[in-house]
Amino acid sequence: MDSKLQGKLQGEILVSAAGDTVIDADNSIPCEDCASVLTPAGRAAVAVIAAKGKAALSAIDSAFVAANGHPLGDQVTGRITFGHWHDEQGHREEVIVCRTSGATTEVQCHGGPTAVARITQQLADAGCQIIPWQQWLEQESADRIAAEAQIALANSLTLKTSAVLLQQDGGTLKSEIDFIASEIAAKNISEALQRIANLQARIPFGLHLTKPWKVVIAGRPNVGKSSLINALLGYQRAIVFDQPGTTRDVVTATTALDGWPVELIDVAGLRTTQEPLEAAGVELARKSIATADLVLWVVEAGSDIEKSVAKESQELLGPALASPPNNLVPLIVANKIDQLDGTTQATKPELPIVATSALTGEGIPVLIEQIVKRLIPTLPKADEPIPFTLRQVGLLDQLTEAIQADKLEAAKETCNELTVGCAVRTSS
Ligand SMILES: Nc1nc2c(ncn2[C@@H]2O[C@H](COP(=O)(O)OP(=O)(O)OP(=O)(O)O)[C@@H](O)[C@H]2O)c(=O)[nH]1
Ligand SMILES: [Mg+2]
Fold it and tell me: What are the residue boundaries of the TrmE-type G domain, all occurrences included (predicted)?
């Protein structure tokens, strides 16, 4: 597995673009009396609070007065009931309550934070543990992968990433793991290992379904990096100025390229400088490059691009760029092609270079195409199973190790752990 993923597995909790803690916390610890706000925080029209357990249900029963006059216990399961929520200070609020199953009840109230806080506080005072919505989803699920897909969907950034996650929510990944488990049971070990390897090859793609790919736009000062980020975004995000050393801070913007979420990162032009502020910018630029999924190395279009690219990549990025791991081989962009005359165009370099003009927009569609090709070299087919959480990644590694060590019972248990949700575990 690549070292970046390994680092993440050792304790980092994935954070979505919205800054929300998402899919890799261990949400499987069951709680008896608990409640959770299932709708996002904010001034939404309606909030949904789900609760389960004896303490929760008796707290709802004493605060909720149904318009049909029946107590909560007599309300029909699966049918919504209009009524009022009362608190100890005598406040009254219109709510809809639904017993969604024998054990769980949903309260739908006004979506403002005060209404939500009042109801959850009453539930907490009655002894209910208030848990995050991700934990609620996992606890209530019979299929752990479907719960993870639903959590990931809330953090999905584009229609394309959502479509892939919906596919996994619908059972594609679970069916594959179940099939692998049956192959292990039948002792078809090489087939099982091959299928696990196929899943593992799709991990880098899967983990980016909830986290944009990072693309750093790097190069010498004044080559048009900031102009390119603006051209790719379609609006003026970064300051452009005809003076080398304009960009100092790291400027980021999230967009979709061909429907895939990408964080574009514009940085200071790389050069040796004695000016402390610019040197700080160059240092930040190097740090961004080190964590990128792809680096665009921008040069000014001209007759001796090959020479300048080779020289620059050695001087400015050092051996890391000259012989990097695959994903950091930079994509060379020759910008300002509008300045080339007929002679220099005729001697365009042999290197695989994308020629652009940030000024006129020429070459930008090709650049987008090439970026996407580099980020997603093989696009999985619509119905392919794709692992998309660090928990799944870790368990797939564990599964391979168990099979290779001929510990087939442990391997079957790992398959079970991958797929079976908390609701089944706690009931069995
Ligand atoms: N003719 C032409 N000029 C361009 C093009 N792209 C950028 N420029 C000009 O080049 C100058 C520098 O552009 P920037 O985008 O600020 O360059 P940069 O690489 O971000 O520069 P630093 O932030 O200083 O590293 C500006 O005057 C731009 O208008 C282009 O494609 N064609
Ligand atoms: Mg700039």
Answer: 212-376
89 falls within a domain: yes
Measured distance CA(108)–CA(93) in Å, rounded: 11
pLDDT band at 323 (very low <50, low <70, confident <90, very high): very low
Nearest to 367 by CA among 378, 379, 357: 357
Distances (CA, A) of 173 to 148, 179, 286, 419: 11, 10, 38, 9
Q: Which domain holds residue 233?
A: 213-375
Same domain, 172 and 65: no
Q: How far apart are the CA of 204 and the centre of ligand 2, in A?
A: 30
The total of structural domains in the chain comes to 3
Ligand 1 pocket residue status of 83, Cβ below 6 Å: no
Say yes or no: ipTM exceeds 0.95.
Answer: yes
* pLDDT surpasses 90 at 302: no
Is 140 in contact with 30 (CB distance < 8 Å)? no
Instruction: Tell me whether residue 145 is in a domain.
Output: no
Task: Indicate whether 401 and 277 sit together in one domain.
Answer: no
The reply to whether ligand 1 has any atom less than 6 angstroms from the CB of 230 is no
Q: From the CB of 336, is ligand 1 less than 6 Å away?
A: yes
